[in-house]
Specification:
This protein is an alpha/beta fold. The chain contains ten helices and twelve strands. The protein has an eight-stranded mixed beta sheet, sandwiched between helices. The chain has a two-stranded antiparallel sheet with strand order 3-4. The two termini are about 25 Å apart. Its main location: cytoplasm.
């Protein structure tokens, strides 16, 4: 009955993409926010961003929605909209202050994730982007289990070039394989820094073991692209603005656009293959 309820609610969601990383601080929420902005740049496309990082919900801040409240209607919770075609849901909207700590055990977190999937009235959505916390535990198992009632196109895994990050990302790739979650590919974030004046590139986080490229070759996973560091990304996120719109000519924006294009192509191909099987 529970699976049928979730299926009924998410029937109108065409593509679901999870954004994962075993490591905290690699820019996963930033990537989720910019992926949602990039997809929603096409006004004919309806995009939803679900933040299931229960203890560290940063999506409301990044999307310029701090202080917003969730409204309830007869058809369920209404997402908070950035644009007409970009809706967001996060535990951050349920807290009385952005500084409130969420001190919950696993079952309560799992209950809220289920509620987000079952009770939010997303409407017809082309892309549902799910921003997850770091790690491979409760929240990840819950979202995969609940979404298995419908379908998940796959996961995008975010890393930075240094070995201390790649170590945790390998665990995340193994997690995906164990729970049979397709991997769309890996994004290497903070991959070098291009000086805006002299245009020279410096390696701020040296890839001592070959970075994401070598890891992807070893584990037979696609590398979707490398995003260079740009101080403007952090500034745009702090202001709740889209970096892609604020710095359209930045090397990081061009890299993001290529990655988003590849994710779209993968999802369309995945959808086409599923329809063929059916």
């Amino acid at each position: 009955a529970e699976a049928a309820e979730l299926r009924a609610r998410l029937r109108a969601v065409r593509h679901t993409v999870l954004v994962l990383s075993g490591k905290g601080g690699v820019g996963k929420s930033t990537f989720s926010a910019l992926l949602a902005h990039g997809l929603a740049a096409d006004e004919s496309r309806q995009v939803a961003l679900l933040d299931i990082d229960i203890c560290g919900p940063s999506i409301p801040k990044m999307m310029g929605l701090e202080g917003e409240q969730v409204h309830q209607s007869g058809s369920g919770w209404s997402p908070v909209y950035v644009e007409e075609n970009l809706g967001v849901m996060s535990v951050g909207f349920l807290l009385s202050s952005p500084d409130d700590a969420v001190i919950w055990r696993g079952p309560k977190k799992n209950g809220l994730i289920k509620q987000f999937l079952r009770d939010v009235d997303w409407g017809e959505v082309d892309y549902l982007i799910v921003d997850t916390p770091p790690g491979t535990s409760d929240e990840h198992l819950s979202i995969v289990q609940y979404l298995s009632a419908t379908h998940i196109d796959g996961a995008v895994i975010v890393t930075t070039p240094q070995e201390v990050s790649l170590q945790d990302v390998r665990k995340e790739i193994n997690f995906c394989r164990k729970v049979k979650l397709p991997i769309i590919g890996v994004v290497e974030n903070m991959s070098g820094f291009v000086c805006p004046k002299c245009k020279n590139e410096s390696q701020i986080f040296p890839p001592t073991t070959g970075g994401a490229e070598k890891m992807c070759q070893n584990l037979n996973v696609s590398l979707l692209g490398k995003v260079p560091l740009d101080p403007q990304i952090g500034k745009s996120c702090d202001r709740g603005q889209s970096f892609l719109a604020e710095a359209p000519e930045s090397p990081a924006t061009l890299s993001y656009r290529n990655i988003i294009q590849r994710i779209q192509e993968y999802c369309e191909q995945h959808h086409f293959q599923e329809e063929k099987i059916m």
